[in-house]
Amino acid sequence: ARMFDEIIIRQDRNLRGKSDDEIIALLVKGIQEVDPAKKFTVMKKEEEAIRHAIGTAPKGAFVVLCSDVVPDALELVLKLKEQDEQVPFSKEDIPNRNKELVG
Fold it and tell me: What is the pTM of this model?
C-alpha cells in the first residue's frame, strides 16, 4: 500500500469461498494497517475500476492493474488506448494549409 498514491479495490471473479463484503473488508483493513491515510476507492466491477484508474490518472502516471482475467483486462486497456489516440481535427487545425507549395 505504501508505494501507491491511490488504490482501487475491485472484486475478483473468484471469491475463494468468501463474500464480496468479506474480501473488500480484508483489503481495506490491510491498507489501513499500513497507511491509515491512504486514498482508496471500492468498485465492484473490474471494467469500471480499469476505466476509473485510466480516466483519472494524471498524464504520464504509472497505473498498475492486478487482474484475475488478464486477457479481458488487456483487451479493455488496448481499446481505451486506441480511443485515446483518436484525436479529432479539422482542416483549420492543419498549419500552413493555405500556403502554396514551393517546388
Answer: 0.72
